[in-house]
Amino acid sequence: KNEVEQSPQNLTAQEGEFITINCSYSVGISALHWLQQHPGGGIVSLFMLSSGKKKHGRLIATINIQEKHSSLHITASHPRDSAVYICAVGKHSNYQLIWGAGTKLIIKP
Amino acid sequence: DVKVTQSSRYLVKRTGEKVFLECVQDMDHENMFWYRQDPGLGLRLIYFSYDVKMKEKGDIPEGYSVSREKKERFSLILESASTNQTSMYLCASTLGGQNTEAFFGQGTRLTVV
């Protein structure tokens, strides 16, 4: 079983819909990251969080440490939000990040 | 802003060639990483370095080596390129310690023919 599991793998929605992407992990973490990868390869960090909730524009990330679960929400989704969203966790014990497989999101106009 | 720069965006090499992929970061980050990304497999760690001249194997080091002679530069070397090393290669850096926020280069799409 992977230490970081994301769901769904693929998600297609209409413009304007509220989007939720989930991430569950099974290890002790120092922080959880949400990243975005657009076609063409570049990866950018969206959030780094270790508790509670963070908001940036239409993006909201939450984490429940007890349940080892995080969600990324997109409100009023737009075609430019189409990308792969990746969850990663930083373990307490070392320098490495453990990566989820990513969720491919397509927003149709 | 942190900038992580990879030397090439696209590269085509022949089987058996020695290939160098270079990565430079400009924010004095301690940790640097090389990943490869393949469809359906996500990011897989090849090697990482937590200090100059220090390196550790990741999950898939076979067929690769690395060099970190200076703090800002981390090189990935394919000693004898093979077609199964055709992939997207991504370099990343993190500040160090408990701060694991990763900054990525733009990626190098390597094709071995």
List the main descriptive attributes of the protein structure presented here.
heterodimer; A: 109 residues; mainly beta; 5-stranded antiparallel beta sheet; 0% helix; B: 113 residues; 7-stranded mixed beta sheet; 4-stranded antiparallel beta sheet; 11 strands
Describe this structure in words.
The complex is a heterodimer of chains A (109) and B (113). Chain A has 109 residues and is mainly beta. Chain A is 0% helix and 61% strand. Chain A contains no helices and 11 strands. In chain A, strands 2, 4, 5, 9, 10 and 11 form a 6-stranded mixed sheet that branches. A 5-stranded antiparallel sheet of chain A has the order 1-3-8-7-6, with no helix packed on it. In chain A, strand 9 (83-91) and strand 10 (97-99) form a beta hairpin. The radius of gyration of chain A is 13 Å and the shape is globular. The N and C termini of chain A lie far apart (36 Å). By secondary structure, chain B is mainly β. In chain B, 0% of the residues lie in helices and 57% in strands. In chain B, strands 2, 4, 5, 6, 9, 10 and 11 form a 7-stranded mixed sheet that branches. In chain B, strands 1-3-8-7 form a 4-stranded antiparallel sheet, with no helix packed on it. The N and C termini of chain B lie far apart (37 Å). The mean pLDDT of chain B is 92. At the A-B interface, strand 4, strand 5 and strand 9 of A face strand 4, strand 5, strand 9 and strand 10 of B.
